[in-house]
Design goal:
mainly alpha, two-stranded antiparallel sheet
């Protein structure tokens, strides 16, 4: 674990951004291996991640990033060909890096030596192999679920980007709040003066009516001032509430960007070709709502791959493109945020749904026949 808190926070944000950009770039590169600009982009990200890890002393992340950088360098030179197996190896390494970053900033053990071993970037297509191994090799147990598709029961978006102009607005509003607080505090002596007038014995040469008029004047003056303070406080409070609410608004891309890798892994596991199209990722919603949408969307998208999208040969027989398409769309209406998932798969098997409904006693065959 990184000892210095400031360095921990810095590496958590910077390391996470590098890994996400690597992931996104590699997904684009897998679709278009000849894209030299994207190849250069992921090469730079690997180099930057290596440097960031070295700066805070996270050796495992530095080593894997260095190995990734070397591999991408060989690919740039044409000494290695990008194959599906190479991509599998690279993505597995990114999963290991994510876990190692988590360990470095939290101290929680999330990765075993065998996972680091299995994150080795295999380069068997050329004579040279870039080696990185633990003290002893441990055989990894097989898993049927890709790491990118594992549910996180307490998914949280822990950092948000805030426009510096918004911070300036908040600082101004906080300053106004401090001034108003000082005004309210200054009313306390005035209240004391009023109490003194009420409790002060009547002087022989002062008529009670004079004191009564003085008391009434001071009360009226205090009422006016407090009313003004209250109105100002309400105004500042409303503005602060609005500003904070806007800061909590984050783009749907914060979760949408999690799914391309998941789709890639599950489709490859099932020998299917699936393209995920994302639209409206810049649509914003409250951070809490976005966090809660992660698992339901993951479930829906996985169902589209499992039960909707057919295998390439089956699609071709139906006159469809061999590559299936899932569209994830975010949009905003006057009063709602809408998230829509659609696919060009085979759709629902209505008869199978009816049989399942009868089997589970949800409704009878007679009821179904009337639907």
């Amino acid at each position: 674990m990184i000892e210095d808190k400031e360095l921990r926070d810095l590496f958590k944000a910077e390391g996470g951004e590098h890994v996400q950009r690597l992931n996104d770039g590699l997904l684009r590169l897998e679709k278009n291996p000849k894209d030299s600009a994207t190849l250069e982009e992921v090469f730079r990200e690997a180099h930057s991640l290596k440097g960031a890890a070295r700066m805070v002393g996270v050796v495992d992340v530095e080593n894997i990033s260095h190995k990734l950088e070397d591999m991408l360098g060989l690919i740039k030179k044409g000494a290695m060909e990008l194959t599906p197996e190479i991509f599998d190896s690279i993505f597995k390494s990114l999963d290991a890096i994510r876990k190692l970053i988590h360990e470095a900033v939290t101290g929680e053990k999330k990765i075993a030596d065998f996972e680091i071993w299995n994150s080795e970037l295999k380069t068997t297509s050329i004579e040279k192999e870039i080696e990185y191994a633990p003290k002893q090799e441990i055989k990894e147990p097989e898993t049927a679920i890709p790491q990118s598709a594992v549910r996180s029961p307490h998914f949280r978006i822990e950092t948000v980007r805030v426009d510096t102009k918004m911070l300036d607005v908040l600082m101004t509003q906080t300053g106004e709040l401090t001034v108003t607080k000082a005004h309210i505090s200054s009313r306390i002596p005035e209240i004391g003066e009023i109490i003194e007038i009420v409790e002060k014995p009547e002087k022989r040469n002062v008529e009670f009516g004079v004191r009564s008029a003085e008391l009434k004047s001071k009360l009226q003056n205090l009422k006016t001032k407090i009313s003004g303070d209250s109105s100002r406080l309400d105004f500042i409070s409303d503005r602060l509430d609005d500003s904070i609410r806007k800061i909590r608004l984050i783009p749907l891309s914060a979760i949408f960007n999690l799914y391309p890798r998941m789709v890639r892994d599950i489709a490859r596991e099932q020998s299917k070709d699936v393209n995920l199209i994302i639209e409206g990722g810049d649509t914003v919603a409250d951070k809490r709502i976005v966090e809660e949408m992660k698992d339901p969307l993951m479930h829906i998208i996985r169902n589209s791959i499992d039960h909707g999208i057919e295998k390439p040969d089956e699609r071709e027989k139906k006159g469809k493109p061999r590559i299936g398409t899932i569209t994830l769309k975010g949009m905003q209406t006057a009063s709602n945020i809408i998230i829509e998932v659609s696919d060009d798969g085979k759709g629902l098997d209505i008869e199978a749904v009816k049989q399942a409904a009868v089997k589970r006693n949800i409704c009878s065959e007679a009821e179904l026949s009337g639907m």
